[in-house]
Amino acid sequence: xxxxxxxxxxxxxxxxxxxxxxxxxxxxxxxxxxxxxxxxxxxxxxxxxxxxxxxxxxxxxxxxxxxxxxxxxxxxxxxxxxxxxxxxxxxxxxxxxxxxxxxxxxxxxxxxxxxxxxxxxxxxxxxxxxxxxxxxxxxxxxxxxxxxxxxxxxxxxxxxxxxxxxxxxxxxxxxxxxxxxxxxxxxxxxxxxxxxxxxxxxxxxxxxxxxxxxxxxxxxxxxxxxxxxxxxxxxxxxxxxxxxxxxxxxxxxxxxx
Length: 257
Ligand SMILES: [Zn+2]
Hints:
Blueprint: H1 4-25, H2 33-48, E1 58-59, E2 68-74, H3 82-92, E3 97-100, H4 109-117, E4 121-124, H5 138-156, E5 162-163, H6 172-180, E6 184-186, E7 190-191, H7 200-208, E8 216-220, H8 226-239, E9 243-244, H9 247-251
Parallel strand pairs: 1-6, 2-3, 2-8, 2-9, 3-4, 5-6, 7-8
The chain binds zinc ion.
């Protein structure tokens, strides 16, 4: 599997080889564009695709034949939409994992309590979820993770160990911060795209058509459409013999440290 170290090694070897060819048989310096552009392409692909495990291991699915899947929600808590999601999950007695943004918790502490009391898992989705978060240093990412961890700890007295990188983007600094703080990175293999302009029907069909054993579904409890899509997804799962389990149960790893 191609990762950051292998891509970097390939870049160095290719560059040395082209350097030698330039020296001995005087090929054009334009040949250096090959390692430079391919390295750049790998970096962009690896950073943007959490499933590539380019910089760090991310759990995006479970290897199993059992008809079990996990459901996750990012970007909350949201005073308008999180209660709707919690209500549907309660009606169907289904567990979920909420990757919360620290700055969204203030004023919504009761929602964090409700999630925990209902048996749902809470994971870290950074404090700011800033659009520019991927330019942060290792220390910057550690602050983002620690700040949210402290806020959640003060409410439910549990230390989160699950971390979902904002936008699914990983960087070397994010990987180092996550490792230093002993987080498990949780990705997904079904992206609902429930915050796009697609209709609820289309979003539900996209999710349902990809459901298979071991899947981790990504929703957002910040979208008006999510409640309806969630209902359809849970109905499909029930009708087709899929059991919704927690991410801990699916991956057999601890959510809290
Ligand atoms: Zn997010």
